Amino acid sequence: GLALRGLASAGIDLSDGLAADLGHVLAASGVGARLELGRLPTSRTLADHFAEPRRWELQLSGGDDYELCFTAPAARAFEIEQALAALDLPATVVGQVEAEPGLRFGTPDGGAWTPAAAGYQHFDGGHA
């Protein structure tokens, strides 16, 4: 996280899942985003055992992965790549922030998709 100081606009740990935690950042910022499902990092095990759309649901709702999600201006991409590479930390661009509130999901074929669950909901007793 410290490597992103001055480069990232916002960030959050993914303890409650990508969809839920990114949703918190977007709501606090008054913006939305479009995630490209085909860009989500996928382990060989996950790919071997789960097909789409179940794999996407797991990728979006799984938590406690000790990962960070952050937003940054596109103009900072090179600086971010350099800062993270110096620490041997991988990063993957999975979408973009948009003015329209809400979180939208794009499929690899250019379509749209809506997940069944959005991640852990602390005050609702579990998953949405």
From TrEMBL:
Pfam family, one: AIRS_C
This protein's name: PurM-like C-terminal domain-containing protein
Domain PurM-like C-terminal positions: 3-104
Species lineage: Bacteria, Pseudomonadati, Pseudomonadota, Gammaproteobacteria, Lysobacterales
SUPFAM superfamilies: PurM C-terminal domain-like
InterPro entries linked: PurM-like_C_dom, PurM-like_C_sf, ThiL-like
Provenance organism: Arenimonas malthae CC-JY-1
GO BP, sorted A to Z: thiamine biosynthetic process
Coiled-coil ranges from the UniProt annotation: none
Domain of life: Bacteria
Entry-linked Gene3D superfamilies: PurM-like C-terminal domain
Gene Ontology molecular functions: thiamine-phosphate kinase activity
